[in-house]
Write a structure and sequence with these properties.
Organism: Planoprotostelium fungivorum
GO molecular function: O-phospho-L-serine:2-oxoglutarate aminotransferase activity; pyridoxal phosphate binding
Number of strands: 13
Strand content: 5-15%
Radius of gyration: 21 Å
Strand order of the largest sheet: 2-10-9-8-5-3-4
Enzyme class: transferase
Helix content: 25-40%
Distance between the termini: 38 Å
Cofactor: pyridoxal 5'-phosphate
Shape: globular
Pfam family, one: Aminotran_5
Largest sheet: 7 strands, mixed
CATH topology of the largest domain: Aspartate Aminotransferase, domain 2
Number of helices: 10
Bound molecules: pyridoxal-5'-phosphate
Length: 365
């Protein structure tokens, strides 16, 4: 790790691979002999077109994205897509309704936003069990006349992650903001996937949308141009000025992943990292993870200590060892360890060691 850099376990914007930062630094003042920074490149220039094309082809390779899917880049974050999804897709069926699987605050927010533009069926909601599980498939009944079914693959605040994809006769929309590219995924099972880059695949400012071509239809009439899948698809995401620098960082992250061995290798590392932390939790009475074992996130490991004073102390002592941003989301408290792709195995093991040490020092007899 470079001098003076801390171990950043933030949930997002999160750490970025050090090699990516170094390459961006090297190229910051003069990108490939152009005498200019990427920050200063016209989005209509050949150089930027090259960055965009490479980002798309690298992502296609990483995820094995079939030819009948388009890759689009939007601004507005995941929250922008909460509106874009219903605006673009509610009209796919005459019912103008959509099914929402609510497993945490992000899918809850998405459902609330969608209700502004059409009818929302909440097909299941795990609020009663405090968002600690992915309900099994037989607990939710999808409506065959809905325009789409929506789910959040990884609930970042509650640390709940779908371990498997599911089948459906209506198009599936997936918010993958916080586990995008962390594991293998069958894109052909999805109608639309979107992910804000700042959690696991770059920096804030760009949101990737992967969409099956036959779902790109005329959106609801009130749709803002900057959220129209149709206009962005027709203009290869260059209808207006795209977030050029975040797209460049995403391109570097995709290349970093390909060099590492792609998603099978990344998934293997992520399994090992999350296991290191969950093993400490499960072998103790000191730490407690509220999430059901089969629903636990590999990306955001949440847990509690016996009381909030100890949690405060835990955060302080971790900070002294340069391990930062371990606090749980402000709405739930506790501890949250975000183990995105860019967090290497070594600091993860350091954290697990620290957890054991802290427990030995503070556990009550
Ligand atoms: C962070 C997050 C969002 C919201 O993203 P913004 O870019 O802040 O709008 C949506 N969904 C998930 C799963 C997230 O983790």
């Amino acid at each position: 790790m470079g001098q003076d850099r801390v171990y950043n376990f933030a949930a997002g914007p999160a750490c970025i691979p050090e090699n990516v930062l170094k390459q961006a630094q090297e190229e910051l003042l003069n990108y490939r002999g152009s005498g200019r920074s990427v920050l200063e490149l016209s989005h209509r220039s050949k150089l930027f077109e090259g960055i965009l094309a490479d980002a798309q082809s690298s992502l296609r390779k990483l995820l094995n994205i079939p030819d009948n899917y388009k890759i689009l880049f939007f601004q507005g974050g995941g929250t922008g897509q909460f509106a874009a999804v219903p605006l673009n897709l509610m009209g796919l069926s005459p019912s103008k309704s959509a099914d929402y699987i609510v497993t945490g605050n992000w899918s809850q927010k998405a459902a609330e936003e969608a209700a502004k533009y059409g009818k929302v069926n909440i097909v299941c909601d795990t609020k009663a069990t405090k968002y600690t599980e992915v309900p099994s498939r037989d607990q939710w009944k999808l409506n065959p006349d809905a325009s789409y079914v929506y789910y959040c693959a990884n609930e970042t605040v509650y640390g709940v992650e779908f371990q498997e994809q599911f089948d459906s006769t209506i198009p599936i929309v997936c918010d993958a903001s916080s586990n995008f590219l962390s594991r293998q995924l069958d894109v052909s099972k999805l109608g639309v996937l979107y992910a804000g880059a700042q959690k696991n695949s770059g920096t804030s400012g760009v949101t990737v949308v992967i969409i099956r071509e036959d779902l790109i239809k005329t959106p609801l009439p009130e749709t803002p141009t900057v959220l129209s899948y149709k206009i962005f698809a027709e203009n290869n995401s260059l209808y207006n000025t795209p977030p050029t620098y975040p797209i460049y960082i995403a391109q570097l992250v995709y290349r970093w992943l390909l060099d590492l061995g792609g998603l099978p290798e990344m998934e293997r590392i992520n399994v090992e990292k999350s296991k290191a932390v969950y093993d400490v939790i499960d072998s103790s009475d000191f730490y407690r993870c509220p999430v059901k074992k089969d629903s636990r996130s590999r990306m955001n490991v949440v847990f509690r200590l016996p009381d909030t004073d100890l949690e405060k102390k835990f955060l302080e002592e971790a900070g002294k060892r340069n391990m930062v941003e371990l606090n749980g989301h402000r709405s739930v408290g506790g501890i949250r360890v975000s183990l995105y792709n860019s967090m290497p195995l070594e600091p993860t093991n350091m954290l697990a060691d620290f957890m054991r040490e802290f427990m030995d020092k503070h556990k009550r007899e």
